[in-house]
Amino acid sequence: MIPNESSHTEPAPSGGIHVCPAWAGPLLCCPLRRLFERPETLLGDHVRPGMTVLEPGCGMGYFTLPIARMAGPAGRVVAVDLQPKMIEGLTRRARRAGLLERIEAVACADGDLGLAARPGVVDLAVVIHVLHEVRDRQRFLEQLYDALRPGGRLLLLEPKGHVSRETLDAELALSERAGFRPAGEPLHRRSHGALLEKPR
Ligand SMILES: C[S@@+](CC[C@H](N)C(=O)[O-])C[C@H]1O[C@@H](n2cnc3c(N)ncnc32)[C@H](O)[C@@H]1O
Hints:
Blueprint: H1 25-28, H2 39-43, E1 52-56, H3 64-71, E2 76-81, H4 84-96, E3 103-107, E4 122-128, H5 137-147, E5 148-159, H6 165-178, E6 181-184, E7 191-197
Parallel strand pairs: 1-2, 1-4, 2-3, 4-5
Antiparallel strand pairs: 5-7, 6-7
The protein binds S-adenosylmethionine.
Residues 19-20, 28, 56-59, 62-63, 80-83, 86, 108, 110, 128-130, 133-134, 140 line the site of S-adenosylmethionine (SAM).
């Protein structure tokens, strides 16, 4: 069982969950990060022009801007974060990069990603270095499942070293309970995770 994941319906107690502080947002977007975590390498096989991509836990947009470039002018990125300051930082960076019109940047409530009004419209959900910070992971995964179209995919990555293989396996068990099926295991030196699919 994941620490703090007491049941698949009840939110877990908040003790032990550490949410990345907003002051770290600019650090996460530091260009040096590209030396060991290139968005194009991690995402290039998954994002296609014209896709609608959902990125919960987007931070200040280290992955969001490259996703918007890969999705092209006909694509859309729905970028959601718990912390309004992260969304403000992302919006600034997207405006500067001329990508704002492809990105819908939204601050969400804890436990509600705000996606209920548009089920089944997302082609790909990208959750990178986020799930271990989420208080109620089951509910989070269920919301992603509902937002995806049948056949849509979830790319889930967690940082090796920071998130153990046991925790990742427990997260994958929760994803299965939400309805996801395995669709592959992305290979990366610094992250582990899975490519998951909502069955057609
Ligand atoms: C470690 S940061 C990673 C940011 C980004 N994915 C990256 O790799 O640069 C985790 C982000 O997830 C957000 N987060 C944590 N719990 C969340 C939740 N329940 N719903 C939405 N966002 C959440 C945090 O506010 C933070 O911006």
